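Hi support team,

I submitted a single chain yesterday and got back a structure, but I'm not sure I'm reading the token output correctly. Could someone confirm the output below corresponds to the sequence I sent? I've pasted both exactly as they appear in my results page.

Thanks,
R.
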Amino acid sequence: MCPVMVNELYGEKYWGGNFAAICFSPGIGAYLLGTLLASHIYQSHIVVGKNCYGHECYRDTFRIIAGICAFGMLMSLALAFVTRKLYADLRKMNKMEANVTKSLNAEEHEHLLTGK
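Hi R., thanks for writing in. Yes, this is the structure output for that exact sequence:
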């Protein structure tokens, strides 16, 4: 589904680069958020010489990542809202093309039956 989505949203001109960026972004995000951010926040909660235990160690990490996920969800909804009219127009065009094809096939069929 991802290759089709990239083609629909960005076109075919730079498809390879766009597809690579979309495929690598979850891995890059997981590294940045799950490794660098989480370890930095964990280290900031450690008292000298002791480890950090409990939910307070990762609460801020959870809130930041939850906020980023909520932002991503809002952007996805915005994209769906913006492209809704485009896809409605495409569906109308496809229906019109199907009707033209059906009418041509019916005329062609009638021509073959009557010989006219």
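A quick pointer for reading it: The first helix runs from residue 2 to 10. Let us know if anything else looks off.

Best,
Support desk
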